Structures are given as structure tokens and as C-alpha cells.
């Protein structure tokens, strides 16, 4: 499925790192679409990331999404 069809508040399993390569988190939380990109925060932080709205995702049995 495409990112643009998932509900607000959805979680994606995606390991994130800072500019020094230090791990920031294992999940990102979807907030809203913003043109061709989407607005996400790293779970438990205020750190922002953006994914393309046409990103393919797979829903896991545990209820979170994974990048395809």
C-alpha cells in the first residue's frame, strides 16, 4: 500500500540516526501529508523526518507498517 492512504498516528518501523550516525529510534509516527512528502516524528522525540507520499508500505501482523 502507499503511504498516502494510511491513517494519522500510524507507526513505521524505521531505524533513524542523527548526522553523526547515532541511533535516534526504531519507529516514526505519521502526522500529515505535506505536498509530495509527509511529516513524521521519531517516536518519543520531537525530531522530524519526511518520506515521499508514494512510499510503498506493508502492514505487519503487529499493527505497524514497514517500508517495502
Q: How would you spell out the order of helices and strands? A: EEEEEE
Unreliable sequence segments: none
Main sheet specs: 6 strands, mixed
- Spatial shape: globular
β-strand amount: over 45%
Total E-strand runs: 6
Spatial strand order of the main sheet: 4-3-2-1-6-5
What are its keywords?
68 residues, mainly beta, six-stranded mixed beta sheet, 0% helix, 53% strand, globular
Protein model, in words:
- The model has no long low-confidence stretch (mean pLDDT 96).
- The protein has no helices and six strands.
- Helix content is 0%, strand content 53%.
- Strands 4-3-2-1-6-5 form a six-stranded mixed β-sheet, with no helix packed on it.
- With 68 residues, the protein is mainly β.
- The chain has strands spanning 11-17, 23-34, 37-42, 48-52, 57-59, 65-67.
What's the arrangement of secondary structure elements?
Layout lengths: L10 E7 L5 E12 L2 E6 L5 E5 L4 E3 L5 E3 L1
Parallel strand pairs: 1-6
Antiparallel strand pairs: 1-2, 2-3, 3-4, 5-6
What's the quick description here?
The chain has strands at 11-17, 23-34, 37-42, 48-52, 57-59, 65-67. The chain is an all-beta fold. It has a 6-stranded mixed beta sheet with strand order 4-3-2-1-6-5, with no helix packed on it.
Amino acid at each position: 500500500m502507499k503511504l498516502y492512504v494510511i491513517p494519522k498516528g500510524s507507526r513505521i518501523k524505521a531505524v533513524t540516526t542523527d548526522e553523526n550516525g547515532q541511533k535516534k529510534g526504531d519507529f516514526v509516527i505519521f502526522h500529515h501529508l505535506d505536498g509530495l512528502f509527509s511529516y513524521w516524528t521519531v517516536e518519543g522525540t520531537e525530531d522530524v523526518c519526511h518520506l515521499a507520499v508514494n512510499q510503498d508500505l506493508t502492514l505487519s501482523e503487529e499493527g505497524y507498517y514497514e517500508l517495502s
